[in-house]
Amino acid sequence: MKRLNPNSLVVVSSGTPDTSQALSIAIALCSRLQHILAVLVPIIGECGVIALYQRSLDISGRAFPWLAVPEECYRGGMDLDALRLLVAEQIGTVGQAGAAFLLKTFHDQLAGLVGSAVTRQLIGASPTADPVNHNREPVAAKIRRLWRV
Fold first, then answer.
1. What does residue 14 show for φ and ψ, rounded to 5 degrees?
2. What's the DSSP call for residue 65?
3. Predicted model pTM
4. Rounded to whole angstroms, how far apart are CA atoms 113 and 119?
5. Per-residue pLDDT of the chain (149 residues; tens, 9 = 90+)
């Protein structure tokens, strides 16, 4: 599996709407997970966050077999570069649906441990809302539509 360098510039050569949308979804997903990581590590520790992430990937991989490559996505912790690449390689709304499912699964796993109210306080009511940058709303809105299905 190819790995992305976090400092590298990704150029979509074909420029098709599907590939650029998949890349946008992949970037939004990883941005959201980085935010969640930053919020939760001081509270439940890095090992706790990684355990939730791994469990969420395992569950998501049953619904979306292309996500069932857990060793690539959490080698040495949370390998968000590998996850970004996996999502960006999906065609159509497949990546979008998988990203939404993974975020919802993570949110549900955390809510099962600490409760819905605490989860909402920590990472928000909607796992797809970007609390830092609201300029990504078009991408988050696309994920939210699939989320409600």
1. -75, -30
2. G
3. 0.70
4. 9
5. 344 444 433 444 444 555 678 888 889 999 999 999 999 999 899 999 999 998 998 899 999 999 876 565 666 678 888 889 989 998 878 888 999 999 999 999 999 988 888 888 888 765 544 433 434 444 445 445 444 43
